[in-house]
Amino acid sequence: MKRTTLSIAASVGVAALTLTACGGGDSEGGSAKTAPSGEAAEESGADSGKESGEESAEGEKSAAGGGAAATEAPKRDEDADLVIWADELKTGPLKKVTKSFEEEQGVTLQVQTVANEQLRQQYKDATQAGEGPDVVVAPHDWAGEFVQDGVIAPVQLSAETLKSFSPEAAEATKYDGQTYGTPYAVENVALIRNTEMAPDAPKTMEELVETGTSLVKDGTAKNVMALQVGKQGDAYHAYPFLAAYGGSLFEKSSGGGYSDKLTVDSDEMLKGAEKWAWMAQEKAVNTNIDSTNAPSLFAEGKTPYLVSGPWALEQAEKAGIPLEVSPIPEFEDGGKPSPLLGVQMFYVSAQSENGILAQEFVSNFAATDEVQLAMFEAGQRPPAATSAYEKAAKKDKTLQAWKDASEGGDPMPNIPAMNAVWAPLGQATADIVGGKDAEARMKSAAEEIRKAL
C-alpha cells in the first residue's frame, strides 16, 4: 500500500473528529507454563482474548479476570511527541519500526510496555485521568467498551485503505457504524498436528478422536488432544465446537456486527454443546489441560493434536516437532467447527495530547506493509493488510492454513455485553466436561448472562 501524508485540511478535520469523539479428567497435564501472546482467546477472545490460550483470547482473559499481580501504569514522558502503549510481546517490534516514523515526521516517539493482563483497565483509567498514551495497541473486541467509556476516537481510514485489508479485518474496525482503529493482524485457532504421530489430517472429528485414542491405548501418546479447558473453562477455545451447527453468542445483525440479543442457549448452540459433551466422554477434552500446559503437551510429544493459535507454534518448533496446521475437522453429521476471529488493532486515544500526529500514525503509518510485517513477528499472526499477508506467506507456509481455518469463522463480538459472557459460558463448558447435562448447563449459563446484562 502506498503511504500518504495527511494534508493540512485533512489534518484539521481529523483533529476535530478526535476532539468529539474465561469436573476433572484423568489425562496427563504438563507443568511447563507458556505465554501465548494470543490474545482467547491472545490474547479474545478474549482478547480473547484471545489470544483468550491467550487473551483474543486477550479479550477473554481480561474480561474473565485473573492474571499477574497489578503493577503501576507507566508514566508518560512529557518530552515525547507521541506515546504508544502495548503489551510486552508487541513493544519490541514497535520500537524497531517506529524509528522511520520519527525520522519522517521529525518527532520523538516513545513505546511503553504494559502487562497484557492489565493493559485494558490501566489504559482506561489513565486516559480518563488525562494521563494516558496517544495510541494503544489492543484487540478489536475491546472497541465497544472503549467507545462506551469515551477513551478512543474514530479514525479516518480512506475507502482505499479499508479495501487493502482482508474483509474480516476491515469489518472489525467498525463499531456502531464508525471506524475506530487500524487492523494489523487476524488470529484464530486451528488444528495443529504432529505429522510423525498422525501423518494424515483427520477428515472428521470422529476420525481425530479414534486416532488419538488408539495412540493413547498403545502408549504412543498420553492425551487424545490438547485443548485448553481448565477448571473454570475456556469459552474462546470451546467456541468452535459450540458454534459448529450455526450458533453464535449474540444474534447477528443484517448490516454486520451483532445485536444485543443473547443466543448462547439457541438450538444450534445446544447441539454444539452436545458434541462438546461427547468429546469429553471420549476423553478428547478434560479440565486438567489449560493455558499453562496445552502447548507444552504438544511440544513434548504427548499428544498428536493441539487446538490453538499461531502463538503456540514457536514452542513446538523449538522442540523439533514436525507439524502441520489445518482447519478443525467437521463432525460426521456435517457440523463444522467455526472459530472466533480476533483482530489486533491500533487505536487513537480520545484524550491524545497530539491528536493530529496520533491520527497520522494510526490512519497511515500503521497500515503500511512496513508496520504490518514488523508486527507479524509478534506472535506470527497473519497480517491484516493483503499485500503484507502475501509477502509474509511466501516465507511462512502456515499462513494459508490459518486463513483456511478461519473460513466461516465469526468475528469476536466487540459489544460491551461480551464482558458478561466469558466467565459464565467458560464455567459451563468446564462443567459439561465434568459430566453435567449439556443442555441444562448451557441454559443456566445463558440465564446467568442475561441477569448480568
UniProtKB/TrEMBL annotation:
Q: What's in the keyword line of the UniProt record?
A: Signal, Sugar transport, Transport
The organism named in the record is Kytococcus aerolatus
Leader sequence segment: 1-21
Identify a single GO molecular function assigned to this protein. Answer: carbohydrate transmembrane transporter activity
> Mind telling me which Pfam families this protein's record contains?
SBP_bac_8
The family classification in the record reads: Belongs to the bacterial solute-binding protein 1 family.
State the name under which the record lists this protein.
Carbohydrate ABC transporter substrate-binding protein, CUT1 family
Q: What sections of the protein cross the membrane?
A: none
Here the segments flagged for biased composition (Basic and acidic residues) are 48-61
Q: Which GO terms describe its biological process?
A: maltodextrin transmembrane transport; maltose transport
Q: Tell me which domain of life the UniProt entry assigns to the organism this sequence originates from.
A: Bacteria
Record GO cellular component, one term: ATP-binding cassette (ABC) transporter complex, substrate-binding subunit-containing
Q: Name the segments for region: Disordered.
A: 20-79
